[in-house]
Amino acid sequence: MAGIGGGLAGLAVANYLLAKGLKVTLFESKNAAGGVQNTDQTDHRPGLVCNYRETNVPQSLMTFSDFQWPEGTSLFSKNITVKQYMQQYANQHMRE
């Protein structure tokens, strides 16, 4: 199976398919997971949001059921915190 995008939805779908025993390849245009929160510019394309801007979505709506946020994380986290959360999730769950 192939998935497009390493944001929240792409990671969740990939993890579900892996749990069902399928082999999954996830394609992401940036060099790491993070979706629109990935502000890495090594490919000379800016991220869609600024590193230190707060999200407008509460972290409770961006929580993976099998991966909790660090204790004390703000309800409306900074973009860099959301990006790190997704990248940590990907590193723990998307490796073969």
UniProtKB/TrEMBL annotation:
PANTHER family noted in UniProt: DIMETHYLANILINE MONOOXYGENASE
Protein name: Amine oxidase domain-containing protein
Keyword Hydrolase: no
Record keywords, A-Z: FAD, Flavoprotein, Oxidoreductase
Domain of life: Eukaryota
Single GO molecular function: oxidoreductase activity
Any single Pfam family the record assigns to this protein: NAD_binding_8
